[in-house]
Write a structure and sequence with these properties.
By secondary structure, the chain is mainly beta. About 10% of the residues lie in helices and about 45% in strands. It has a seven-stranded antiparallel beta sheet, with no helix packed on it. Strands 3-2-5-6 form a four-stranded antiparallel beta sheet. A four-stranded antiparallel beta sheet has the order 10-9-12-13, with no helix packed on it. A hairpin with a 2-residue loop joins strand 20 and strand 21. The N terminus is likely disordered.
Length: about 575
Amino acid sequence: MTRTDDQQPDKNQEATIEFEDQELSGVHISDEDLEAVDSDSKNARKKAKKLSKSQLTDNDVKLLRRKKWLIGGAIVLLIILVPLIIPASRWPILNTLGIRSTMNFSVVEQEDKIPLSNVVILLDGTFFTTTDEFGKARFENTKLGNHKVSIQKKGYSREDLIVTAGITASNTAVEVKSIGIKVNLDIRNWLTNEPVAGATVALEKDTVKSDKTGRASIVVAPESDAKTRLQVSAPGYKTQSIPLSFGVESKEVALVSDIKDYFVSKRDGKYDIFASNLDGTQQQKVIEATGKEDGDLLQFTLHRGNRYGILVANREGKVVNSRVIAGIYVIDFATAGLRKIDEGSDVQLLEWADDAIVFQKTNQNVNYDDPALTKLISFNPITGKQKQVAEANYFAAAVVAQNKVFYAGADGYREGGNTPLTSIDLGSSATKTYLEGRLPNVVTRSNYDSLTVLADDNSYYNIAVQNGAVKKIDRRIDSPYAFGLNPNGAQVVWADKRDGQGALLVRSTKQDDTKVVAKLSGLAMPTRWVSDRMAVVRIVTTAETADYVIDIPTAKSAKIVDVSDVRHVGVVL
């Protein structure tokens, strides 16, 4: 159909084209024609792609290749991540790869939040463990995923829960209710009444710890009775067995130090050596006397570690050349062993120089005028080493101060036999002489840091122990102090008279910060440490001769036991 000029369409209307059937009668489109056209189109597109690729630069090719790799990698990653995101498929896949986890548990009592030990934790009805003293438990190398967990302890509620073990360690806090009988104990030091924190209260395998106030709470089964006993222990204390007490708010438990006091007693008619707890209980004989011991010759002292003792005694009743022979024995209280390390006549224990005891003796096999009649000897019970310090006919002075021995040899049988005051350091063996041209008549331990010397010109001198400095001083009379060094070497204690009473004093080994710890009537030597905070002192009055224990920080004291007052170090009879 044709269009005449007078049949112009309206500009505001959409143009339409109409065909008459007879006009289309000559047009024939078959499926084969369509396939041919489609094939030609595909071929054209392929040729266009090839042409396009052939015209790409090297950089365009690299970018195109990288794009393909990124798209492919993203698809692969998506295929991997999708199963891992879904829990049902995540855990089996990771477990197959051998990935394992750790499951941590902490169990406390619901009301007091006290950690519970020996709680059984059952995992999947197959694996189990128990909590430690801090209420902690752990399963290691555990498969990932959900696990059935059962928390069980006698006297407490059972708790069942589902815990998921993930890739990182899981931490599960569980509170259980007490359904038994709760027993409260207040644990304190027997001497100072201070609370004992960290004490363990045990009922069979169940244990709890005391808190900073000394309170420990343990739940016992309802069927428990008064015959059931709790074991209470703490480092440095003796374990106590405590019967259950029902119907009371709490029961106080006084723990006694596990340190022993060792002393000489003639309670059985002989000078035996006994051991006792510091509260006076469980006294028992450690070393039995032979019955030949002379009380005037007997001497006894203890090493600061409280394991070794030194005994001087004529246990064998030996007499040589009309001289009574005393043995010097070392006692190992850990084994109750007694071993003779030396013997001689006129044996005298001087004092401890750190870990070595110094003593002097005369040789019973030589004449009294022999220039080597008397020897100074040191013995270390820890190492077992014994060595001679000096020898002379006799010693005009022999004093131990800190780790040094000060001595002056004398000889009344020959000219030139007297020697000046000399010191020897037992550690380094270094020697030093003092007051050249003067001989000492009297040497006393005036304090921890110095000695007082009365020379043969009737002048008085002060000698510093450490550096050996000498200076002349005004006349003075000093008490012969004997200092007890504590196990850690940081402090010393000694006895003195203050205001007519016996006083126990303490100071640092580094500086003179002397202070009075306690005043006790009859306080005398010896004084010695039995731990880093407790000392044992001797009390001698008309009413008693006894050992007392004193807690240095609090000055609390208590009697231990009655003893026989034998000679001690630093005293000459």
